[in-house]
Known about the structure:
The chain is an alpha+beta fold.
Amino acid sequence: MELLEIMKARHSVRSYIDRPIEPEKREVLNKMVEEINQETGLHLQIIYEEPECFKLALIHYGIIKGARNYICLVGKKSKDLEEKTGYYGEKLVLKAQELGLNTCWVALTRGKSQAKVNPGEKVTCVISLGYGSNQGTSHKNKDLKEVCNIDASSPDWFKLGMEAVQLAPTAVNQQKYYFTYAFGEVSAIAKFGMYSKIDLGIVKYHFESVTGRKVK
Length: 216
Ligand SMILES: Cc1cc2nc3c(=O)[nH]c(=O)nc-3n(C[C@H](O)[C@H](O)[C@H](O)COP(=O)(O)O)c2cc1C
């Protein structure tokens, strides 16, 4: 399936059925994790068959029901850790979607993860993973003009990139990012907001993977 179609099919799923992830699918995801870690120095991990992480989530908003697998986004504390984990976390989310699995980014509504966190490292976020009892629903979008400087003269690839960006998950659907096209190049910033640096990595991945253009 084409990447844009995978993005269209992906929604946050907060309720999971009792079906283990098959070994072949685990292998694909584990291999991607290994490659990312080697390439970036991150310490991403996938924890399977461990329901405790989501059991403490007693707050009403976004309780994650029945999740027993999760991707743990871990890396050395640094200025760009949030953005980097957002970028590579979303790469894994879209691969999971392609494999017929469902996901939800979870910053708040969870307990302690079982990830191995070395001294100097931290967990920026986790992503629940498994077979959903539903496929989720589309989120509402801000007006395109609020999130980028698109106009009649913008190239088609910028429009396509922004379509992909607007399909991306962001914390509490805040969409606190801004993309600027100028002189053939595109840049993006995170506006002030909780987890907006993680969001920035996520939306940059959407833009770059669909257009093949680098976002500064
Ligand atoms: C960094 C980040 C943190 C999130 N944290 C939570 C959370 O703690 N609990 C939850 O239920 N959803 C969480 N979400 C999911 C968002 O609410 C969701 O992505 C957004 O509402 C858009 O919906 P969609 O993913 O279905 O497109 C988080 C998303 C992101 C990107």
